[in-house]
Write the structure tokens for this entry.
Amino acid sequence: LARAAGPVSSIAGPSASAWALPPSLGNAVHSPPGAAGADSLSFAEGWSKRMPAREAASHSASASAAAAVALCLGSAALVPRMRRRQVRSGAAGAAKRWSVAGLDGAARPAFSSVSRAATTVQGMTQLLSRDCPELMEVATVQECNSGDGLGLFARRAFEEGEEVMLWLSEAGKSNEVMVPNEKLSDKLGSSYYGALAFQVLKAERIDEPSIWQRWKESGVDAPPEHPLKLLFSDPGLAQRLWNSTTCGGRMGAAAAALRDDVKILGGSVDLEEWADALALVMSRSLVEDSDGRPILVLGLDLVNDSDDPTCTVEAVYEAVGGGIFGANGEGQLVFRGASLKAARKIEDGEELSIQYFEYPQVGKYLEIYGFVPRRLRGRGMGPASCELVFAGTDDEDGYVYEKTNVLNDWNIPVEPISFHFEGGKPMSRVKEGMDWDNKSQIDRMITLLRMRNIGGSDSFLMDSVLLDFLWENCNYRVSKENEIEACKQVNEEIARWLDRFEKAREEEAEDGPEVPRIAKWMGDCRENEYDLLYRLQGLMSQEINDVMFSDKVTYWADRQMDKMFPGARELASIDKFLNTTEAGVF
């Protein structure tokens, strides 16, 4: 994964005249922005029709933008795909410059919103009345309860479970549901978010008016504290933030992917404009489909986060094809849109809200949405949460092909998996057995790492006779060496994060009085995650100790012995005890 960031000149944006789309992307998208179908508009033509007014200024600033990215990435940046790799960024030596100081405000209700200072109630109401009138029949746009921007409020009461709004995606049309183009996402380092960002920029620049062009021109923006925006307004603070959470690896990876994306886009956009577009779609995509693709939905992006959400949001599917009874009796599931439903009784005039993440992880909120929820600000405010990321395969593993097939057969992601841990819940020891869905986060992580580390003396399990049972065998301890290696990898990853947090503490000790609020909140986040990681490290160390010194731990060979010769191990243990006793007596 590791690749050098390169000289600043290699990161700098393109020349002002380089607006033609490269051949590699020329046929990637021929559909209206937000639609999956095709039309006669070529992508290159659509992209180049509307030149942004700030073209010259933005490109003349490309060198300083490149320097900002280079400053944060350091000399050994890691450049993975945003959704497929979790790595530690190699940022170093960034200067401290707190450019967003003085943002503190008075205490407010427990709502958290993405800043929408550039929009107005009147302007957004006019936009939605024209382009999403069904939403305006059930909701109004007002200043949100947190006072940080706009929100949606119910026009009438809704009962628990009642559908508040349904957004449908119509193939071949520019509608209020934008799905990331699959071909484009495969080409960009920023993946699905990159595809959405490009589709929004395309909509803004073409002559043909569209829903998303009007949405973009309404003044919507990501919060100024979003890490991708801070890369250009305050690179030192950006680095500080991603060194304060276990989500920081992805933040650094997202920053590193900017340069590669700009190169792929062949001069159509500069670094800062691309970062702004990415931050915008990340902070506005509130629902994912079953494949984990973020979906941008007009109007839904106004629904704020709350610790007492009034609603839930989910992707909507339709079974099509397969005759009267569909394929296999059900048909093929096709994405159709998004649904907002009442999670409880909603009163007339009450603000519509959801909870953005299942886990209360401060770093995740900052990474994607660019803000820290009020309920999670401060040391000990709410349960601590952190994540560790591992993959079940390694490209250098001689059995990577076989292991990949096994993961696919069991519907386990081949891409690195995030394992979430919460401080407010008991952290149990490693347990064996159980299927994937019923395992704890610790058990899932160790199961995956058992398979990752199968090799050497355990290579016989990769034999064709046993390969079909590989994943089932990984539900249990495979061998002493395998179990120790799996736990050691967890502890090594934890040690790297604890070391990074220690360095962040040292930097924090040098802070002056003018420290922005986001740095304070992320400092508290770091300390909460530090305590949680330290607990997890102790748990893994205890597991290693048990495996090394306990006679009660069993492995694959022991289980096979029990199957073929029931009771043989018990007799062997009794014989060993008698021999030991006899040696002690005589």
About this structure: Residues 262 and 271 are 7 Å apart (CA to CA). The first strand starts at residue 111 and ends at 112. The chain has 23 helices and 13 strands. The longest helix spans residues 517-549.
